[in-house]
Amino acid sequence: QNACEKKSFIFLRKELPVRLANIMKEIALLPKNLIGTNSVNQVNDWYLKSFEEVLEFEKTEPTHENLLVHIRNRHSDVVQTMAQGVLELKESQGGYVEPSLETSIQYFLDRLYMSRISIRMLINQHTILFGGNEESKGRHIGCLDPACDISSVVQDAYENARFLCDQYYLASPELVVREYNNLDDTLPVRTVYVPSHLYHMLFELFKNSMRAVMEQHDNATDNLPPIEVLIVRGKEDICVK
Known about the structure:
By secondary structure, the chain is mostly helical. It has 2 domains: 5-136, Up-down Bundle (Butyryl-CoA Dehydrogenase, subunit A, domain 3); 145-240, 2-Layer Sandwich (Heat Shock Protein 90). The protein has helices at residues 5-28, 32-35, 38-56, 65-74, 78-92, 99-130, 150-169, 195-216, and strands spanning 145-149, 175-181, 190-193, 227-233, 238-240. The chain starts with a helix and ends with a strand. Its main location: mitochondrion. Its EC number is 2.7.11.-. Residues 4-145 form the Branched-chain alpha-ketoacid dehydrogenase kinase/Pyruvate dehydrogenase kinase N-terminal domain.
């Protein structure tokens, strides 16, 4: 709430080059037949271009919000493009990839996607706080909600996943939420979090769960077992199951 734009910018111009360089180094260590695909080359070019642009304003004042947004938007299709690169690799090898190579690729993808999330998080937080964005108003601090209501996000994700399930299967399982706050059982479970991140995770889990329920019960429309969600707050952490 008392954030300083200059300090935030100084942190970004030091941190972003490091994170971009780290992932570029990992891309360079990928198997040659994967690096050689058009899609992976495209991803590498995006990171190289962003790295060069970040270096350009390393010694400037904090007036480059548009450049940060441009860098963030450039990487919007990284997930799909990397997935296409893996498909291109499999096609070039007749659909078969050695288990050891597949494990190495999965390890790299996990690190790539975590790095991408962290970079987008840093850029979003800065641009929302200092870019005159309407999202920075209200109780939110940038993209963070200091009192994120877990149960409310669960309900939102369920309702949207249920809409898709109803459209496809003409029915959907109900939701049963149990919530336990061991710190104060009179209050709902709230925490400091990015609501959009939690929503996306829950939305995907609900879609998978609903599909499993519907297909396990032969697309029945009656007597479907509910999807159960357990939210527990302990002394040190929060668990959503």
